[in-house]
Write a sequence for this structure.
C-alpha cells in the first residue's frame, strides 16, 4: 500500500489555506476552507480555475493533484474517431 498522498504536497501558509507544491517548491494548486450555506467545504483550485467543492481536505487535495498530473499529458481524451465516412 502506498504511503504517500497528495495532502503531503500541501503546506499551510495561513490558517485554512493550503498550497500544493511540486518537488521544486512551485505552487501548482490551492485548497481553501470555506463555509458554503453553513457547511464546511474545501474549494479546490488548479491553474486559476475552480475544480469543485469537497467535503474533506483529503478529497480536495486529490482532485487538485489529479488535475496537475493530467496537465502533463497530451490533453483531454477526445473519444474515438468517427470512421463512418470511410468507404470500406
Amino acid at each position: 500500500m502506498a504511503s504517500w498522498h497528495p495532502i503531503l504536497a500541501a503546506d499551510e501558509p495561513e490558517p485554512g489555506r493550503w498550497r500544493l507544491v511540486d518537488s521544486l517548491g512551485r505552487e501548482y494548486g490551492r485548497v481553501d476552507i470555506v463555509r458554503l450555506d453553513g457547511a464546511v467545504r474545501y474549494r479546490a483550485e488548479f491553474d486559476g480555475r475552480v475544480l469543485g467543492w469537497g467535503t474533506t481536505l483529503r478529497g480536495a487535495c486529490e482532485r487538485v493533484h489529479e488535475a496537475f498530473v493530467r496537465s502533463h499529458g497530451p490533453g483531454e481524451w477526445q473519444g474515438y474517431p468517427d470512421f463512418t465516412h470511410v468507404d470500406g
